[in-house]
User: Which sequence fits this backbone?
């Protein structure tokens, strides 16, 4: 048996143990072929079957309508920051950006290299701890799209309600909360997500796009690897895809179905975050700065009463096999990333440790 | 023990068995940490160490001069087709392209979306079976760079001599023959290669670039993920890299060093191709159409005397555990891809089968 530690890294992040065990068992002998899945051609019928199954499982889990394409790309959310602006804007058209933290700021910055992008909400006035009232966003009805990030991994701030932006396509960076709960895909024009939080290893990115939006970049001179039509027209196999990452993504989706799908995983995620925030709020040693309504269910930043104890907290956690708890350098403190694959047991171990550390140092 | 078959796929391709065995043994417990290498943050000191070691091993193996940067990117050679033109050309500058097959044609097509690209050699007049005399290339001294593909995977044509292009930077798509033999890096301005032939799994791309060329795109509006400076300035960790693919690449490099480095692997590759071409040339059943001087040491396309037997040949090969021998749909016939990880034993098994098949069907 493998001794597994508790891994709260923000991404690449922990994967379900049984996914890794299956990958391990067949790593040199996939489907009894005497080769690894990473050694087979992406053009082989066996691999194509694997890829199509992963897409179907994603469609089943998210209930993706038939007028949406699912694309498998590389380059992470960062490449999507450029792809969205390149693919979705007509000439001289601008876009609307909701800035709720570091990731949406980065998305805005990349989009501004390509076309005019309006900031319709700037959360920096709240130091990215609040979003305020979504109905106050100053939407431009002629914008090519409205972009937001549903979960800010660094700040630990999540917008769970789906914003109503009228007829303008809603574009969402869902990298760190996709598949954590059921959502209504039909409310979106496009969703993108790097896999390395809730879906698999790093190196593969999922894009879900409403078909009619693909016409906007159909006959453009965008580099092929950045044009959504390249992927939509080739089942994402125009060039060699990241085959092993796609395979692991497929295993994670299979695991998710086995857990009962997104409604079940949402219940688990609700319980997990409640355990941790409740403990933090009731302690006089730890604190979280985010407005309650917008607290992230995926990434929980917290601060020790005495910041001088940070390193001691981390060292003690590592000794107990609680990894990845150091906060992002831009915000400091601690952060527990509690994606789908984090178990209740892991939450209990974390909270136990936090209790003991507080007791010893309060 | 795992029973391994012989895998002649063109890419993703066979990997050294001992690389896969190491990956398997530590898949759930890397460095005794109780987590997988694909679950650890790319910002952790352990992962950064792994990444730096891979770069150093690549530098050692290829003897990369200190004035060259090594970048680890995503998107395969296809994304590099765009990156080269975006990063290496001054405004209104054109580039020179040598077209020796399908891959250099694709590179040209992408470059032409961005700027003027001159075709200085067009091998389609030889049906891509010959390159003729390299000294006849019509070089433009004011070109931003000269681009060629050192090994055309589909056609099975390789340019082993390093072309002399004067002071214009030489750019090479080395995806399918990098690390197959020693080369003089100092003759190049930039080399790029997808990993999935000789270096690792798909999903990671290596770029080796002479530092002075980076100034050309230093202050441009190129999307960050396509700008070489983004990677050069962040040890290729501006965003989350494909961490597991990078890890496997590192294991392959370690394996290569253990084999004795590139001079030893070059001897092995020389022997392997010689065995196969000798057999083909001496048979009256198989043929290869490429001018001898330019025959690829990595990908050996061959045709049966009777093309109606193609499917029978493939079926028989699969039954014996000889996989991936079907030729590319654009050129038909058969193809044996015999990258570094293909053993002499695999070559013997292939040739034995070819002999028997010829005997039975001649």
Assistant:
């Amino acid at each position: 048996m493998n001794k597994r530690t508790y891994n709260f890294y923000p991404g690449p992040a922990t994967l379900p143990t049984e996914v890794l065990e299956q990958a391990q068992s067949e790593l040199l002998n996939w489907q009894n072929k005497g080769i690894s899945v990473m050694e087979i051609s992406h053009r082989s019928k066996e691999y194509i079957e694997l890829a199509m199954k992963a897409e179907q499982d994603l469609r089943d889990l998210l209930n993706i309508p038939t007028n949406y394409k699912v694309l498998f790309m590389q380059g992470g959310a960062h490449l999507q920051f450029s792809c969205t602006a390149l693919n979705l804007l007509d000439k001289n058209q601008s876009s609307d950006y909701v800035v709720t933290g570091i990731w949406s700021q980065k998305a805005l910055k990349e989009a501004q290299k390509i076309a005019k992008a309006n900031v319709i909400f700037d959360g920096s006035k709240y130091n990215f701890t609040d979003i305020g009232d979504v109905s106050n966003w100053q939407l431009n009805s002629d914008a090519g799209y409205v972009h937001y990030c549903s979960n800010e991994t660094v700040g630990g701030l999540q917008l769970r309600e789906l914003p109503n932006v009228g007829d303008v396509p809603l574009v969402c960076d869902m990298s760190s909360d996709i598949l954590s709960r059921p959502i209504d895909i039909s409310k979106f024009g496009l969703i993108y997500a790097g896999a390395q939080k809730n879906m698999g290893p790093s190196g593969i990115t999922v894009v879900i796009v409403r078909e009619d939006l693909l016409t906007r970049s159909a006959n453009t001179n965008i580099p092929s690897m950045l044009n959504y039509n390249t992927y939509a027209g080739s089942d994402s196999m125009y060039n060699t895809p990241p085959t092993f990452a796609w395979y692991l993504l497929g295993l994670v989706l299979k695991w998710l179905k086995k857990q009962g799908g997104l409604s079940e995983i949402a219940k688990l995620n609700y319980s997990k975050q409640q355990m941790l925030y409740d403990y933090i709020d009731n302690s006089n040693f730890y604190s979280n700065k985010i407005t309650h309504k917008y607290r992230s269910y995926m990434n929980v930043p917290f601060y020790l009463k005495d910041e001088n104890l940070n390193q001691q907290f981390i060292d003690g956690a590592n000794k107990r096999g609680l990894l990845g708890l150091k906060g992002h350098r831009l915000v400091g403190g601690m952060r527990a990333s509690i994606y789908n694959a984090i178990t209740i047991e892991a939450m209990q171990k974390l909270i136990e440790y936090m209790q003991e550390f507080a007791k010893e140092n309060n």
